[in-house]
Amino acid sequence: MEILNVKHLEKSFGSKTVLNGICFSMKAGEIVGFVGRNGTGKTTTMKCITGLLKANGGKIQICDYTVTYGGKIPTGLIGYLQDVPEFYGYMTAGEYLRYCAQLLCMKRKQIKLRVAELLDMVGLSESKGKISTFSRGMKQRLGLAQAILNSPQLLVCDEPTSALDPQGRRELLNLLQTISHTENVSVLLSTHVLSDVERICDKVIILDQGKILYDGTINEIKKKYMTQQYEIEFHNRQQLMQFSKCFDTVQDVEILAQGELLKISVADMDNFEKMAFMLIWKNHYKIRRFEIVEPDLESIFMQEINK
DSSP labels for 27-88? Predict the structure, then answer.
């Protein structure tokens, strides 16, 4: 089931075109990484999706609802977490969530149960102090609780980990995964930290100069950019040198030695593997590691935007 469908979305600021007819969709329970350079239109897209910015053209649908600028999106469709959420610092976390729930016209009994559930989920049930005393990570987790207070089907996160330390980032990513699975929420995650996308996302969308360069799963894009490279780690340098000399006269094989590690680029993977395994078996080389180098998302991203 499609939760979000963006069709031919266009947005310009004066003479500058920011979004040039982009199209993409999301399924229920899917976590999608939305990546691109600064100024490529990620935040603009998210503001159009949430109805906070007027598009010049195109159509945005969340389930069966068509998003319009300034329109009242039905409760339970969308939640929004920005990079730096704002709060009333004189309130406690519980007071703030109860206040937001009242604005959503939730019933008193429902408010009590939902607020307690969310505070426990984001690890703030024991935090009785004022929000003004919270760390950045605690505030971000509270912002996440507020964003899913109405049990949305789509959660839009605009660089929520941008100013968090490694521990805070890990905690928030774990929460996003938990929420996606337990509440069946689709998550659109904008981020500059591509390792975060690799860690929790089902697919990735690469946006550049107002156009979508790639829209697919992490595995698909890695297969597309799979390199014919190997890393072989030996137990000692002497065996490494003996092994590498056997390929001195072999065409289309490039070898780089770093300590006890060989980095090898080949044109014919099948022939290389046959020859390598035969040499290892025949000479009784002791190998710590023998693996194909898998491209990471950061290197793939740079290749895509530099085409």
Answer: ETT-EEEEE--TTSSHHHHHHHHTTSS--SEEEEEETTEEP-TT--PPTTSEEEE-SS----
Sheet of 211-217: strands edge to edge?
78-81, 154-158, 186-190, 31-35, 203-208, 211-217
Same structural domain, 16 and 92:
yes
Q: Is the pLDDT of residue 173 over 80?
A: yes
Question: Does 234 have pLDDT greater than 80?
Answer: yes
Q: What is the pLDDT of residue 73?
A: 86
42 lies in the same domain as 160: yes
Beta bridge partner(s), residue 292: 230
Residue 35 has pLDDT above 70, yes or no: yes
235 and 200 co-located in one domain? no
Residues 13, 119: one domain? yes
Instruction: Give the pLDDT of residue 183.
Output: 84
pTM for the predicted model, two decimal places: 0.80
Nearest to 26 by CA among 152, 122, 169, 151: 152
Question: For residue 249, what pLDDT is reported?
Answer: 66
The whole domain housing 248 covers 226-306
> Per-residue b/e over 18-31, b at no fewer than 16 CB within 10 Å?
bbeebebebeebbb
Q: Are residues 188 and 69 in the same domain?
A: yes
What is d(CA 243, CA 216) in angstroms, rounded to the nearest whole number?
Answer: 39
Answer with the one of 188, 223, 258 that is the final residue of a domain. Answer: 223
Give the HSE-up count for residue 264: Cα atoms under 13 Å, Cβ half-sphere. Answer: 28
Would you say 11 and 47 are in contact if contact means Cβ atoms under 8 Å apart?
no
User: What is residue 165's predicted lDDT score, i.e. its pLDDT?
Assistant: 84
Task: Give the chain's domain count.
Answer: 2
What CA–CA distance (Å, rounded) separates 198 from 204? Answer: 9
